[in-house]
Amino acid sequence: MRMSPVNPSSRVVRFGVFEADLKACELRKHGLHLKLPEQPLQALAMLLEKSGNLVTREELRNRLWPGDTFVDFDHGLNNAVMRLREALGDSSESPRFIETVPRRGYRFIAPVEEISSASSSSTDFAERSINNMSVVPLVSQNGETEAAGPSVEKTKRSRWLVLPRLAFVLITIVVMAAVSSQIVVHYARSVDASKPKSDRSTSLVVLPLENLSGDKDQDYFADGMTDDLIANLAKIRSLRVISRSTAMAYKGTRKPLSQIARELNVDAVVEGTVLRAGDRVRITAELVQVSTDRHLWAETYESPLGDVLALQNHVSSAIVDEIRINLRAEDKERLAKNPAVRPEAYESYLKGRYYWNKRSEEGFTKAISYFQDATRKDSQYALAYAGLADCYAVIGATIIGTVRSEEAAPKAKAAAIRALEIDPSLAEAETSLATAKFNYDWDWSGAASGFKKAIELNPSYATAYQRHSLYLAAMGRFPDSLDQINKARELDPLSISINWSLGWRLYLARQYDRAIEQLLNTADMDPSYELPHLVLGQAYEQKRDFARSIPQLQKAAELSHGSPLMVSGLAHGYAVAGKRAEAEKLLQKLMADSEKQYVSPYYIAIVYAGLGKTEQAMDWLEKAYTDRSNGLVFLKVEPQLDSLRSNPRFNALQARLHLPD
């Protein structure tokens, strides 16, 4: 056994109870083949090839996503390593196999043994060939089609036949066997589907639709189609639909559907594929009832790109029909809508959503550009206006704080109102409008009714519960706030944003031990996400555990590249810990930065409060009031402001906000 790099020409490498076939890119445990997506397996191969040495994130990125692939590299790489650790039963905190080198990459640390590279058996070869097959369409024997709304074609019981990527001549026998087995499976499913409908399902997850184009640059399109299908189904009030962030965590996974269903506590699973060719789109979807492993329904739908919203409505309607959900009149009306969208506008919208989901300052800037482009290309595109409203509602808030509230708020409200004029049933726009009323107008009753209306419009929209929870926390209603954030988490259990939000709510509620536990778990989900480190540092700070607090605050500032919010948090931490010189230095940095970019007065007030300079802190809080800084909505509950609560100016300011008792 050794720790030196493995020869790339080696066929099989053994470590512990595992064997990895580097050429075939397979992983086995006790001789049994483990199903893993391609990217975790590629990462494992590279780590083994450089066993004992650092493999940088950049090296892994280039191996897994060559060229200018249009994907979120950081999230994809974190997810690939997480899946690999799951398969190995490894832990980032106490690694046996894969060690994380913070901000740099990973190292394979277990002893490895190279095994003879003798040729594998024909059985192994056949298994690999089948696992590596790509797909091409096979139309049903009668080729029957029927109209399914404007410009939408539906192919009855279409199935996908598989052809191997490897040399056709070498595996003809394998292909014939595979085709035969598929025919048997499809026949069995057809017979099964003819049985009476099963008991009604009330919850489901839409797994990420597979991109069949062969072009990884089109992954964003398949992901966007998945998002839209989830959003469409989520509008059905009597159906619980797992949200986008959690569903996307299963992208590329080969877990059994029954295991996924258990993990997410759902009754049914929708899986399928997307193929975009020129200006046409084809979706194949299949519905599986997990309790019986019955394939209840499968169809293929095709339409021009401009009719893609109608196509999604038809897929949603078919799924709802199969799971026997009783629809309200409003739900039927929504699913009956067949809006058209200009193809070029839809393209821009999907790219906007892609960057929105990055949840970064740069991502929001790019998302705004794409959403604006979508509204220019199609002035009736409600979802594009809702996307704009989301972006403006966030970039003016304290959590990002890169734009003055007086600039961001009107744009957020205008975009949300325009979206609701086009489509009054849009929960996303209703949520954005309520967020603007909460963050900037300080219209507490208007915000509350808006969040409630959004939840009524779409009970499966996790973001509405998340934002409502934040409003309730600011009002000091912590039991209600925690109830709402936990409902959001039920719908989107793997969302980094929602898991961090739960930790933040617990911090505001002064439940510091619970907050720390939750935030540690969240930071482990994505170590590159700065917000859990910020609030984790603040929670340790409130417990006077500065040995743990300062490193977390430093990490948050480093990961954010010195954003004003994170610098303010670190400066406050230094001040409370008695490191006044370091705090003063960062305060001067914030002052200097304010000459070049917008820095909320609230951030500066927080530092002065930490330094014990009460009057200066109040001066800057009053400037924040003039700016209508979103940070002031937490005046009633923010622990960092506790030192000011006996000050008459502070109490007068709180009274001017009309915060409820």
How would you describe this structure to a colleague?
The protein contains 27 helices and 18 strands. The protein has 661 residues and is α+β, with helices and mostly antiparallel strands. Among the domains are: 12-115, Arc Repressor Mutant, subunit A (Orthogonal Bundle), CATH 1.10.10.10; 342-441, Tetratricopeptide repeat domain (Serine Threonine Protein Phosphatase 5, Tetratricopeptide repeat, Alpha Horseshoe), CATH 1.25.40; 562-661, no CATH class. Strands 10, 11, 13, 14, 15, 16, 17 and 18 form an eight-stranded mixed beta sheet that branches. β6 and β7 form a beta hairpin. Mean pLDDT is 81; it is low at 118-199.
CATH architecture of the domain at 12-115: Orthogonal Bundle
**How many beta strands in the DSSP annotation?**
18
How would you state the average pLDDT, rounded? 81
Structural class: alpha+beta
Low-confidence stretches: 118-199
Largest sheet: 8 strands, mixed
Count of alpha and pi helical runs:
27
Termini separation (Å)? 67 Å
Q: What's the CATH topology name of the domain at 12-115?
A: Arc Repressor Mutant, subunit A
Helix fraction by DSSP (H/I, runs of at least 4): 40-55%
Question: Helices and strands in order, then pairings?
Answer:
Blueprint: E1 12-15, E2 18-21, E3 26-29, E4 32-34, H1 38-49, E5 54-56, H2 57-64, H3 73-88, E6 98-101, E7 105-108, E8 113-115, H4 122-131, E9 133-138, E10 145-147, E11 153-156, E12 159-164, H5 172-193, E13 203-206, E14 210-211, H6 219-234, E15 240-241, H7 244-248, H8 257-264, E16 268-277, E17 280-289, E18 294-304, H9 308-322, H10 329-336, H11 343-356, H12 361-377, H13 382-395, H14 405-422, H15 427-441, H16 444-457, H17 462-474, H18 478-491, H19 496-508, H20 512-525, H21 530-542, H22 546-559, H23 564-576, H24 580-593, H25 601-611, H26 614-627, H27 648-656
Parallel strand pairs: 13-15, 13-16, 14-16
Antiparallel strand pairs: 1-2, 1-8, 2-3, 3-4, 5-7, 6-7, 9-12, 10-11, 11-18, 16-17, 17-18
Helix pairs in contact: 1-3, 6-9, 6-11, 11-12, 11-13, 12-13, 13-14, 13-15, 14-15, 15-16, 15-17, 16-17, 17-18, 17-19, 18-19, 19-20, 19-21, 20-21, 21-22, 21-23, 22-23, 23-24, 23-25, 24-25, 25-26
